[in-house]
Amino acid sequence: MKVYALVGKSGTGKSYRALTLSYEKNIEAIIDDGLLIKGNRILGGKSAKRQATSVTAVKTALFLDDNHKNEVKNKIKESNLKSILILGTSDRMVQKISKAIGLDEIHEYIYI
To answer: Over the stretch 17-35, which tens digit does the pLDDT of each residue have?
Structure first.
């Protein structure tokens, strides 16, 4: 699977830009704040934005909960994806997410 990363500080429009970027590069799915998204549909995961504290939000975004992580890993396998875009605030963050959910090394980093 080809793995892409979109990296930028909070509030820079990563989620907004991800849709256009996915279309331009023919990327099938997006990992954004704990969610696996394909097209306009959430395939799995849970939103970090809906967590009660910033600590639990970070844990959710990084897939530190085994049930959450396994759900998304299974959905990725079931969907037979050939490409995926991971959104994060740093190279380290997207690398941790990629490793946590069992993806290949990141093929390309895009900065915003």
So the answer is: 999 999 999 999 999 999 9
Q: pTM for the full model? A: 0.93
**Structure tokens that stand for 7 in this block:** 């990296």
Type and span of the H or E element at 88 = strand 83-88
Domain housing 79: 2-111
Helix (H) or strand (E) holding 37: strand 35-38
Count of the separate structural domains present in the chain: 1
Task: Please state, in angstroms and rounded to a whole number, the distance separating the CA atoms of residues 50 and 96.
Answer: 21
Q: Do 105 and 98 form a contact (C-beta atoms < 8 A)?
A: yes
Are 112 and 8 within 8 A, CB to CB? yes
